[in-house]
Design brief:
It contains 25 helices and 33 strands. With 875 residues, it is α+β, with helices and mostly antiparallel strands. It has seven domains: 1-198, tricorn interacting facor f3 domain (Immunoglobulin-like, Sandwich); 199-277, 2-Layer Sandwich (Zincin-like), CATH 3.30.2010.30; 313-446, Neutral Protease, domain 2, CATH 1.10.390.10; 454-558, Immunoglobulin-like; 577-668 and 677-696, no CATH class; 703-744, no CATH class; 748-875, Alpha Horseshoe (Zincin-like fold), CATH 1.25.50. The strands form nine sheets. It has an eight-stranded mixed beta sheet, with no helix packed on it. A five-stranded mixed beta sheet has the order 17-18-19-21-20, with helices on one face. The protein has a five-stranded mixed beta sheet with strand order 28-31-26-25-33, with no helix packed on it. It starts with 8 loop residues before the first strand and ends with a helix. The relative contact order is 0.07. It binds O-methyl-L-tyrosine (0A1) and zinc ion. The site of O-methyl-L-tyrosine (0A1) has 13 residues, from strand 20 and helix 2. Pfam families: DUF3458, DUF3458_C, Peptidase_M1, Peptidase_M1_N. This is Aminopeptidase N.
Length: 875
């Protein structure tokens, strides 16, 4: 156990910095065994503060070489070096501060700061990685103009990049090469980036709306140059979309993307030089699945959109993280919805929100979208900050309408360009542009926990009225009780017996916005009366998932089936289906499940539907995940959930069986693979059909075998592999896995998918098989993608295998976390998530999981990352 408890940082303690850094000139000299960094900082006293001329810079794992003030080298008595700081006192108003230090990128396994990945150097500075490169004011409200010089042996690293525009490139007298970059836009150091390597580049150009030509470059290791085209296309689409939808234009002469194999997250929006996890940017048809293509499109857009929402206007402090992340996720979701099917995009986002984010919000790590404290900021790159944050922005969009929202975002960007601001300023811009008071709405940023909305309705045929009573409450979360009523926009519709939307006339009238069909719930309990309702309507509530709440409303299976077939809101059709399926799974648990004739007919007609988007159909026919089911049961018994869900799946497959072979044939496509929406939709449905077919028929397995052998694209090959692994004989499964590895062992990203198939299969994954994967030549503890592909997938997807009654699954994960704590604390901490849910499990499992958390807690040298999550989970 650590002897000193790490410090908690509080939002309420925010104070401005004592000095500003107007200009940063960084010289980075790369040598084989070490790197020397010289920072020349033009510092200026913050005259709004009564600062005493003392300046404390952040630094971590730095070997200090020298400090000079205005050209005069200081002696060691003239400054104090702490464990993670460098302090100078007696300073005047302005100085040139020069600091030299040495670092060892090749030993950096935490992947923060400057590190080696494969054959290259790269950086990751968000949130607090810059302090591992140089002593600095490592906080986002210190914005500085950067000039960067990179020096290395000539010819060693043909590509040397940093932010902004290249201003010089020459071989010096000593024979070393020096490349210089200048970024004219002041930025916080978390947006700094540097790359050096022997890289290939795909080049293109983009002409902005004002007619400027921007060079676009995607840099990759040589073997990946044939996987860059799609990302380039996605980038150009993103640039155009941001101009058209938000009026935002790109601002530098060049925009660069670099792919690296070792990366903790998806990608990073460094100014003009985005760095990507190679799994989120590289694709070609043979190696990437359709979902990988969609992920790449979304992440390329996300990072690009940050250029305005994050870089031009940045965060004052890390408590404001959702200012840039929630808004940018909202923006990238709008982009993906426009490029593909908007309803499908909504379904995917809500699926993830309701499983992962709702679970976080109901567990020990629950925190508001604007947290008020943290120990380690890396732990707060969460689904709450990102996805719930995006939902909150989405509600603002719904409240203000398209035009009002755009007025607000224009005002926000114009007013705060070049500044580091808070969430308050974002909402204030929305208020000022629209003349609206959003004080109550702002509670969404402050209160953690998923609000519950209970709805009850009654119809009066004589009066032709429908009365709807809504009640809301938000449960207590760690450190937060007595939550106040939120402003909840509830989109709804009334359907007549033929499935048509009826006109809505509500009292009180001011609670209804006709243009968006939204009812405003603002009190703990409110009753609304709908007039002139000529027949008993079916209520379609929370359309499009208009607010991130849990809706409790009693509807019979017949009513749900009606909505599944008739709702005019595509999202709610799907959602009614999910509720119906959840009901089936509950029945299966209590041993009383069978599909009614009407339900069977509905399933078959969905399978054969030719009107709806096929991707939507594949979602409509797919059961809710085990984690979603778990979210709605207490206490959670993973094995019981798994078996009940499998029972239902089998029943659906048997119902569809007479039609599966024919539908599968119909959905084959004669045209060459393209990663475009219509083809993707068709493949999604075809492969869902294949999985039902293989589940209940040996013909289906044979079809999977044929598809596996003949596929010319990874989407089909991977779907077939999954069907063989899960439904084929042991021999078929083994043979398919072996031949797949044989075919793809040279491609690390495909091998990751191969690892995931095994780690995530409830049938194949056992503790022993996971241990074997960890020993496999393809596994590497230092590579986050490998760790996620095996351990992350095992603990989050193969639920029956992970929740072994002898605790062996938990012990395996705990061992891995303890090991990773010393290699990569961020990875270790992220892997803890499944263990934080122990309180929700059935008692026999709960105690076992808790014991593993305690074992982790008792280790020496716990990183701040792991310490925070473990201690909060156990308290
Ligand atoms: N800002 C990036 C995410 C990111 C955050 C932290 C990182 O390292 C700790 C890396 C990337 C984004 O939102 O895409
Ligand atoms: Zn982001």
């Amino acid at each position: 156990m650590r002897d000193a408890q790490p410090n908690t940082k509080y939002l309420k303690d925010y104070t401005a910095p004592a000095y500003w850094i107007d200009h940063t000139e960084l010289t980075v000299e790369l040598f084989d065994d070490y790197t020397d960094v010289t920072a020349q900082l033009r510092i200026r006293r913050n005259d709004e503060l009564d600062a005493a001329g003392s300046l404390t810079l952040d630094g971590q794992e730095l070997e200090l070489l020298s400090v000079a003030l205005d050209g005069n080298t200081l002696s060691a008595e003239q400054y104090q070096v702490g464990d993670e700081s460098l302090t100078l006192s007696g300073l005047g108003d302005q100085h040139l501060l020069t600091i030299r230090n040495r670092i060892y990128p090749q030993n950096n396994t935490a992947l923060e700061g400057l590190y080696r990945s494969g054959g290259m150097y790269c950086t990751q500075c968000e949130a607090e990685g810059f302090r591992r490169i140089s002593y600095y004011l490592d906080r986002p409200d210190v914005m500085s103009e950067f000039t960067t010089h990179i020096i290395a042996a000539d010819g060693q690293w043909p590509v040397m990049l940093s932010n902004g525009n290249k201003i010089a490139d020459s071989v010096m007298e000593d024979g070393r090469r020096r490349v210089s970059w200048h970024d004219p836009f002041p930025k916080p150091c978390y947006l700094f980036a540097l790359v050096a390597g022997d890289l290939r580049v795909l080049e293109d150009t983009f002409t902005t709306m004002s007619g400027r030509e921007v060079a676009l470059q995607i840099f990759v290791e040589p073997q990946n140059i044939d996987k860059t085209e799609y990302a380039m296309d996605a980038l150009k689409r993103s640039m155009r979309w941001d101009e058209e939808v938000y009026g935002r234009e790109y601002d530098l002469d060049v925009f660069m993307i670099v792919a690296v194999d070792d990366f903790n997250m998806g990608a990073m929006e460094n100014k003009g030089l985005n760095i990507f996890n190679s799994s989120c940017v590289l694709a070609n048809p043979a190696t990437a699945t359709d979902s990988t293509y969609l992920r790449i499109e979304a992440i390329v857009a996300h990072e690009y959109f940050h250029n305005w929402s994050g870089n031009r206007v940045t965060c004052r402090d890390w408590f404001q993280l959702s200012l840039k992340e929630g808004f940018t996720v909202f923006r990238d979701a709008g982009f993906s919805a426009d490029m593909n099917s908007a309803t499908v995009k909504r379904v995917e986002d809500v699926q993830m929100l309701r499983t992962v984010q709702f679970a976080e919000d109901g567990g020990p790590m629950a925190h508001p979208v604007q947290p008020d404290s943290f120990i380690e900021i890396s732990n707060f790159y969460t689904v709450t900050i990102y996805e719930k944050g995006a939902e909150v922005v989405g509600m603002l969009h719904r409240l203000l309408g398209e035009e009002g929202f755009r007025k607000g975002s224009d005002l926000y960007f114009d007013r705060h360009d070049g500044q580091a601001v808070t969430i308050h300023e974002f909402v204030a811009a929305m208020e000022d542009a629209n003349g609206i008071d959003l004080s109550q709405f702002k509670l969404w940023y402050k209160q953690a926990g998923t609000p519950v909305v209970e709805a009850a309705s009654s119809y009066d045929a004589d009066a032709q009225t429908l009365t709807l009573t809504l009640r809301q409450h938000t449960p207590d979360t760690p450190g937060q009780t007595d939550k106040q009523p939120l402003w909840i926009p509830l989109a709804l519709g009334l359907l007549d017996a033929a499935g048509n939307d009826m006109p809505v006339q509500v009292e009180p009238a001011e609670a209804w916005t006709a243009s968006s069909q939204v009812l405003h719930l603002r009190e703990a309990e409110q009753t609304f009366v709908f007039h002139n309702v000529s027949e008993r309507p079916e209520l379609s509530l929370l359309r499009h998932f208009s607010a991130p709440v849990k809706l409790e409303y009693q509807q019979s299976p017949e009513q749900l089936l009606f909505l599944l077939q008739h709702d005019t809101d595509g999202f709610n059709r799907w959602d009614a289906g999910q509720k119906l399926m959840l009901h089936w799974i509950e029945q299966a648990r209590s041993g009383s499940f069978s599909l009614s004739d009407a339900e069977q007919t509905a399933l078959v007609s969905l399978l054969q539907d030719d009107q709806l988007d096929k991707s939507m159909l594949s979602y409509l026919l797919n059961l809710p995940s085990e984690s979603y089911v778990a979210e709605f049961s207490a206490p959670v018994d993973p094995a019981a959930i798994h078996h009940a869900r499998e029972t239902v799946r089998l029943a659906i497959a048997n119902t569809l069986l007479p039609h599966l072979a024919e539908r599968y044939q119909q959905l084959q496509s004669p045209v060459a693979y393209q990663p475009e929406p219509q083809q993707m939709a068709q493949r999604a449905l075809k492969n869902l059909v294949l999985s039902y077919w293989a589940l209940v028929s040996s013909d289906g397995v044979t079809a999977a075998q044929a598809q596996f052998e003949q596929a010319d694209n990874m989407t089909d090959q991977m779907a077939a592999l999954l069907s063989l692994v899960n439904y084929g004989s042991d021999e078929q499964a083994d043979a398919a896995l072996a031949s797949f590895y044989q075919q793809w062992q040279h491609d690390t990203l495909v091998v990751n998918q191969w690892l995931s198939v095994q780690a995530g299969s409830s049938r194949r994954a056992t503790v022993a098989s996971i241990e074997q994967l960890l020993q496999h030549e393809a596994f590497d503890w230092r590579n986050p993608n490998k760790v996620r592909s095996v351990l992350g997938v095992f603990a989050n997807q193969a639920l029956v295998s992970f929740h072994q009654s002898d605790a062996s699954g938990y012990a395996l994960l705990a061992d891995a976390i303890i090991k990773l704590n010393g290699i990569n604390p961020q990875m270790a901490s992220r892997l803890l998530t499944p263990l934080t849910r122990w309180k929700r499990l059935i008692p026999e499992l709960s105690a076992l999981m808790r014991a593993q958390l305690e074992r982790i807690q008792s280790q020496e040298d716990l990183s701040k990352d792991v310490y925070e999550v473990v201690s909060k989970s156990l308290s």
